[in-house]
Every structure is written in C-alpha cells, then in structure tokens.
Write a structure and sequence with these properties.
With 195 residues, the protein is of the alpha+beta class. It is 43% helix and 11% strand. The protein contains eight helices and three strands. It is elongated and about 60 Å long.
Length: 195
C-alpha cells in the first residue's frame, strides 16, 4: 500500500467517516466491509455543490456505499474515493455505472443509439443492469467484435434492441435517467469479458 493510502494521508475525512460507521477500527479492515449501493450522475457536470465526504468539490459522479455488517450507508462518494478502497468489485461497479450514465447522456441528447456508442464495458453494463437479456448480450458483443459489416438482418435486430419499442435499451435508459427505474445490478459477468 502506498503512502497516500495510509490513514490520515490523502483522504482523512473519508477514512474517519468509514471507520466511524464500520465494525472494524482500522482503515485496512474497515474498507473491506463496504460495497457500492448505487449512485447518481451529478447534473451540471462538475457542479461546485457536488461534494464528496472527503471534502472534494465539483464531482461529476456521485456514489453511495453501504456496509452490510452495520447497515450504514455513506455518500456522496466521488469516484476517486471509490478507488481509494482498492477493491476491484467496487471499481467494476463504478465503471459499469459510468458506462450506463454515458449512454443515458446519448439518449438525453436525442441521438439514436447505434453500435458506435457501445463498448464491451457498456454492453456488459447493460446486461448486468437488466437492460438486455443473454441472447441480446451475446449478439451485441458478437457485433461489436465483428470485423465484417453487419447484414441487413443484423442491423435491423441491433436497431430493435437499442432503440425500438418499450423493451429497448433506449427505453431502459430513458427510465433510469428519469428516476423511474432504479439502477440495480441483476447479474454479473466475469471481469475478463468486459475488457
């Protein structure tokens, strides 16, 4: 662990808040008790009003973390402080939520969703959060990885998945952005798949 990760160095307010709401009384043990419980994209990118528990202002992404041992919830937490926990699962959750929020912005700008807006991470996040099913996930991932131009049938199915009708990715993102559907992870994908 580098010097910046030692309690009292770098993010003392975060360390103090986490330890106070944990069963453990050291940073190394307490940080392992926490997991992401959700978050929201800060409206007004970099708004000075968006402040992390560590005191950093101007956050773009705000998260909440929960401690299942104590029932405590802590937030808002910025993405840099999430990394401070040195937890791969937390980092993966943050990356997936950011991917979803990025796609929400595309939809909010009234831009038709297309394959060019996707990445392996975004496809995985859509699957993990229930926007698409296994068959659609496999198809979109195959399309993303393909070096050939898609056939007319493949293009039509991609459009249907991404932007046609009430079960489309567009509808899902519209609902999550409006707060009509909570962003809850419903399944996970092995980390290697999202790279």
């Amino acid at each position: 662990m580098g010097d910046v990760m030692k309690p009292g160095r770098g993010r003392p307010a975060l360390v103090e808040a986490v330890i106070a709401l944990s069963e453990s009384d050291t940073w190394d043990e307490a940080r392992g008790e926490w997991e992401p419980s959700g978050g929201e994209h800060a409206k007004g990118v970099g708004s000075y009003d968006n402040e992390c528990v560590c005191g950093q202002k101007g956050l773009v992404y705000l998260f909440e973390i929960a401690n299942p041992l104590t029932g405590a919830v802590l937030g808002p937490i910025g993405s840099e402080c999430i990394h401070y926990f040195e937890d791969a699962a937390m980092d993966a959750s943050v990356a997936a939520l950011k991917a979803i929020w990025n796609l929400e912005q595309v939809v909010a700008a009234h831009i038709p969703l297309e394959m060019k807006h996707l990445s392996r991470l975004k496809i995985a996040a859509l699957f993990e959060y229930g926007a698409i099913e296994q068959r659609e996930y496999n198809f979109l991932l195959d399309m993303f990885n393909s070096r050939r131009a898609p056939s007319a049938k493949q293009r039509a199915w991609a459009v249907a998945i991404l932007r046609a009708g009430p079960g489309s990715v567009r509808a899902f993102l519209t609902d999550t952005a409006a707060g009509n559907r909570p962003l809850v992870r419903v399944r996970t994908i092995p980390e290697a798949v999202t790279r």
